[in-house]
Amino acid sequence: MMSGDEKVILAAAVERYGEGAQLVKCCEELSELAHAICKRFDVSVGYERDGEEVVEEIADVEIMLEQLRVILRVDPEMEQRWRERKLNRLRRRLGV
After folding, report:
1. CATH classification of 4-94, choosing from 2.40.128, 1.10.287, 1.10.3470, 1.20.1300?
2. How far is Cα 53 from Cα 68, in angstroms, rounded to an integer?
3. What is the mean pLDDT of each run of 10 residues along the chain (96 residues)?
4. What whole-number distance in Å separates Cα of residue 61 and Cα of residue 41?
5. What ranges do the domains of the chain cover?
6. Residue 10's CB: how many other CB atoms inside 10 A?
């Protein structure tokens, strides 16, 4: 759950940079996270890399997802229903 201060910051970012630019930025951050995950296990050097880069990109993506919620005026209840549906589907697939 976002704090009031976080909501102000995110709304200001959307206002300053524009919805279109922030949607593109969201895609960029998602791509950077995917790239960091791929680099996490670099088979060419034969060892696990430090996970801090992945954690940094997770933070960026979470911030951009919150901005996406602002831009799309996502209904938290609807989002929670979808989350529950997806988790229930995963639970059934896993048999837990």
Report:
1. 1.10.287
2. 22
3. 89 97 98 90 64 92 97 96 98 96
4. 20
5. 4-94
6. 20
The answer, as to whether pTM is greater than 0.70, is yes
Which residue, chain included where needed, has tokens 């890399």?
Answer: 49
Cα separation, 47 vs 41, in Å, equals: 7
The DSSP H or E segment spanning 50 is: none
Strand, coil or helix: what is 36?
A: helix
* Inter-CA distances, 45 with 35, 36, 42, 51, 80, Å: 17, 16, 6, 16, 41
Reading the block at residue 59, the tokens are: 């933070």
Amino acid at 48: E
